[in-house]
Amino acid sequence: MFYKEERLALFIDGANLYAAARSLGFDIDYKRLRDGFAGEGRLMRAFYYTALVEDQEYSPIRPLVDWLDYNGYTMVTKPTKEFTDASGRRKIKGNMDIELAIDVMEMADHVDHILLFSGDGDFRRLVEAVQRKGVRVSVVSTVRSQPPMVADELRRQADNFIELQDLAPFIARQHHHREPSGGGYHDHPGQQSGPTLYDPDDRG
Known about the structure:
Elements: E1 7-13, H1 14-23, H2 30-38, E2 42-52, H3 62-70, E3 74-79, E4 81-84, E5 90-93, H4 97-107, E6 113-117, H5 124-131, E7 136-141, H6 152-157, E8 160-163, H7 164-171
Parallel strand pairs: 1-2, 1-6, 2-3, 6-7, 7-8
Antiparallel strand pairs: 4-5
């Protein structure tokens, strides 16, 4: 699936990957994830996309964002938008699809293989466009959750589909190393995963 000299780029849809991993019962260790793929080729960039609630005094995902920023990830964030749905419930919307798509198209001329960590079917046309430039695309998501997290049309379009559950032994956070209660994010920064701030189904 990988060639040692090929140039790789990772594009991580943060909310989508978080939801997929949680549905399979594990948390992502982002240091293990980055180091693992860096060993498969020449890792040019690792992008991570997430929306942030700007007006919160404390955002639970902020420590993760800060850690990733200092540890080899290119962070792409934007403020969430708050709205009220038809039944009067407060919803938070934070769709990063456009930002991710623009970066993929810009990087396509500089890499040989793109790994897209998302199951969102909206990315099928993006994958097709990048493939026409001669770039291989692997999609990382899961069909083993209920319901499956990856859209069938995205899985069929990709050159390779990597089942997230199969990666778990290599990228899962090892909970037995975690600090007992009171341990913060930065006590063991190599073993971080972060909560999503919104239901991925509401990303719009």
